[in-house]
Design goal:
Elements: H1 5-16, H2 19-40, H3 46-63, H4 69-80, H5 84-98, H6 105-115, H7 121-128, H8 132-148, H9 159-180, H10 186-202, H11 207-220, H12 246-257, H13 264-277, H14 281-294, H15 298-312, H16 314-325, H17 332-345, H18 348-361, H19 365-377
Helix pairs in contact: 1-2, 1-5, 2-3, 3-4, 6-7, 6-8, 6-9, 7-8, 9-10, 9-11, 10-11, 11-12, 11-13, 12-13, 13-14, 14-15, 15-16, 15-17, 16-17, 17-18, 18-19
């Protein structure tokens, strides 16, 4: 249901120009669905049902404001026959509006995740390692700045398009990640792919745009093999490759063939391509070395340790892990990686303890089950 939230908000903003009204009406439509669908049954067109409820609520609010009668007539006229390209591009326009350079990069990403994807504010706060109240204030200030600066609701052109691109790419990446995570909503990943396609059509010569779409396709190609019949996670090296989406892999590889490697998204796409084609861990480790040079971060170093552990032996991976352990203290993935490398090094008892510790810290039940299963194997 929540996969329709961003579409509704974006459409209402286009028609009314009122961010607060758009979000309030979208949330009321969601609340109405939670109340009515269990009782009356889910409609054949849930997105259309939600949009109609939100639209009607917006019209009711505007009708009560006498000064908005002219605007109400505009709303009714625009909603009567919206053009297809407006429906398709609403969220892309909204993302570019949220990613205006007048806003700090973190504010752009947070605002877009909240407005476009409907990600709860507490989840965004955790991603940015701040309190919920701090994130709420940050998002509110960003909306106020957009209104005060009269930032237009459109996809820019020329130099302005390039200025906003890094923020837009970051938003799409986080949107995809939210859908691809173990406890994520798959519709978010599909929406990130759709928006990346639109962006590729808009900027076909931009390597990082093509790289991002290739990355999404190559990662998403494994979606059906990531869980077994019981719904439990299946590690990459144990997945049934016959269940990988060969069409998505072929499209991703074709995008990379014509894409210069200039930034982190294209590099990550080559890493995903290495997994898809069985290029070997030494090749993948080489790409992680390049990624660490272009975009150094503790998470990149963590994944680099995994790649080096597979390519050059457990001790090589554990050596690199030492560098990032303090920076990511308590992060369950660090414990899981250390457990895996420790098992490869032969200390099975300690590895099992580390897998259990990682399970205790894991945020999602499906991750906890996978980690405890690894401990049980050892």
């Amino acid at each position: 249901m929540w996969e329709f939230y961003g579409r509704i908000v974006a459409a209402l903003i286009r028609v009314t120009g009122d961010w607060g009204l758009a979000e309030d009406c979208a949330q009321e439509a969601m609340a109405a669905a939670v109340e009515r669908w269990p009782r009356d049954g889910k409609p054949d067109n849930p997105g259309g049902w939600l949009m109609a409820v939100a639209r009607n609520r917006a019209i009711d609010v505007l009708r009560r404001k006498a000064v908005e009668q002219t605007k109400l007539r505009e709303v009714a006229m625009l909603w009567a026959a919206p053009e297809q390209h407006e429906i398709e591009d609403d969220r892309l326009r909204l993302i570019f509006t949220c990613c205006h350079p007048a806003l700090a990069l973190e504010a752009r990403v947070a605002l877009t995740l909240r407005t476009v994807a409907g990600v709860p504010t507490p989840d965004i706060a955790r991603a940015f390692l701040v309190t919920e109240s701090t994130m709420t204030r940050r998002i509110t200030r960003a909306k106020t700045k957009i209104a005060d600066a009269r930032i237009p609701y459109r996809v820019p052109s020329g130099v302005a398009l390039g200025e906003r691109l890094p923020g837009v790419l970051a938003v799409l990446y986080l949107l995809f990640t939210r859908g691809y995570d173990a406890d994520g909503e798959p519709a978010f990943a599909a929406e990130a792919i759709r928006l990346a396609r639109l962006l590729t059509e808009l900027m076909p010569a931009e390597p990082e745009v093509s790289g991002l779409l290739a990355l999404f396709l190559l990662q998403h190609s494994r979606r059906d093999a990531r869980r077994d019949a019981s719904g439990d996670l299946v590690p990459l090296d144990r997945q049934d490759r016959s269940r990988w989406d060969s069409g998505a892999i072929a499209e991703g590889l074709e995008l990379l063939r014509g894409t210069a490697v200039t930034g982190p998204y294209a590099i990550q796409a080559h890493i995903a391509a290495g997994h898809a084609t069985g290029a070997g861990w030494s090749v993948i480790a080489g790409w992680y070395d390049e990624l660490a040079r272009v975009q150094p971060s503790p998470i990149v170093e963590l994944n680099r340790a995994v790649a080096h552990g597979h390519a050059y032996g457990a001790e090589a991976g554990l050596s690199l892990l030492t560098v990032v352990r303090e920076k990511l203290e308590g992060y369950p993935a660090v414990l899981a990686v250390e457990a895996d490398l420790t098992a490869k090094a032969g200390d099975l008892e300690r590895a099992a303890d580390l897998f259990r510790a990682a399970a205790a810290a894991a945020p999602a039940e499906v991750e906890r089950r996978a980690l405890l299963a690894r401990a049980a194997e050892l």
